[in-house]
Amino acid sequence: MSIKIEHVSHLYGEGEAFEKKALDDVTLEIPDGQFLGVIGHTGSGKSTLIQHLNGLLKATSGTIYYNNEDIYQENYDMKKLRSKVGLVFQYPEHQLFEIDVFSDVCFGPKNLGLPQEEIEARAKEALEHVGLGPDFYKKSPFELSGGQKRRVAIAGILAMEPEVIVLDEPTAGLDPKGRDEILDLVAELHQVRKITVVLVSHSMEDVAKYVDRLIVMDDGKVRFDGTPKEVFSHYKELEKLGLAAPQVTYVTHALKEKGWDIDTDATTVEEA
Ligand code: ADP
């Protein structure tokens, strides 16, 4: 698996009064097996970027290669791409709509036109991955806790057997327990299942803890790209990009405690 994003720009409302360049000449390669974190302030282009990875949004210019194939070429199998690059939206539980948990997880593989036996086998396996046993199969999604609903939504994606899973703020709105459950699950998918993960997060603590590589989006561009250690060493610039200053300070201190060479004495933001 490999994803190559080449000179991708995206305009919303092209040619109209409210035209907005949400991505501006982004070039990025995501190799197999990476755990990539994406951070940036609200409106920096994170959601727009990730919706290009499975073809949900089409670049205004530039192109994307999935396994070295141009996804914009004529007759490209977008349906297959969407099963290989699973996108978990923010608050994915809002998209649970079947009468019970099991039917919901079956929805994706059913759509792929697989035989019934295979659909059910995949749903069972996916639910097992997210820690929901047979007791949950017949429950209505409405009977579940926030963290459980989100796990069902993730199981629905896993049942497609993706090579890449892209999660947009998967811990938003969860309590600390639900949050840890989801992040541990994502870490397990990466480590044990060897799934490539792209994680969009507001929490710099989470990304510092889990990801191999971090990109920072700002005004539709990738401003920083490196290991969390490299990226957080630019803490002053990160604060200027509107990333929460207390969090940046907290994370840089935490990393220093782990023995990282970061000059935390300078993390106080000077009043302009
Ligand atoms: P983020 O995920 O980092 O918050 P988005 O990708 O959602 O950023 O948005 C990037 C920019 O594009 C913002 O200025 C946002 O207002 C704009 N935008 C997002 N979606 C749309 C849309 N459907 N129509 C017009 N503008 C949009």
TrEMBL record:
GO cellular component entries: ATP-binding cassette (ABC) transporter complex
Top-rank lineage group of the source organism: Bacteria
Ranges annotated as spanning the membrane: none
Topology in the lipid bilayer: Peripheral membrane protein
SUPFAM superfamilies named in the record: P-loop containing nucleoside triphosphate hydrolases
Pfam families associated with the record: ABC_tran
EC number(s) per entry: 7.-.-.-
InterPro entries: AAA+_ATPase (IPR003593), ABC_transporter-like_ATP-bd (IPR003439), ABC_transporter-like_CS (IPR017871), ABC_transpr_CbiO/EcfA_su (IPR015856), ECF_ABC_transporter_ATP-bd (IPR050095), EcfA2 (IPR030946), P-loop_NTPase (IPR027417)
Residue ranges annotated for the ABC transporter domain, each copy included: 3-244
Gene3D superfamilies attached to this UniProt entry: P-loop containing nucleotide triphosphate hydrolases (3.40.50.300)
Subcellular location: Cell membrane
Keyword tags: ATP-binding, Cell membrane, Hydrolase, Membrane, Nucleotide-binding, Translocase, Transport
Signal peptide residues on this chain, from the entry's feature table: none
GO MF annotation terms: ATP binding; ATP hydrolysis activity; ATPase-coupled transmembrane transporter activity
NCBIfam families to which the protein is assigned, alphabetical: ECF_ATPase_2, PRK13637.1
Role noted for this protein: ATP-binding (A) component of a common energy-coupling factor (ECF) ABC-transporter complex.
Subunit structure: Forms a stable energy-coupling factor (ECF) transporter complex composed of 2 membrane-embedded substrate-binding proteins (S component), 2 ATP-binding proteins (A component) and 2 transmembrane proteins (T component).
Family: Belongs to the ABC transporter superfamily. Energy-coupling factor EcfA family.
Protein name: Energy-coupling factor transporter ATP-binding protein EcfA2
Native source organism of the sequence: Fusicatenibacter faecihominis
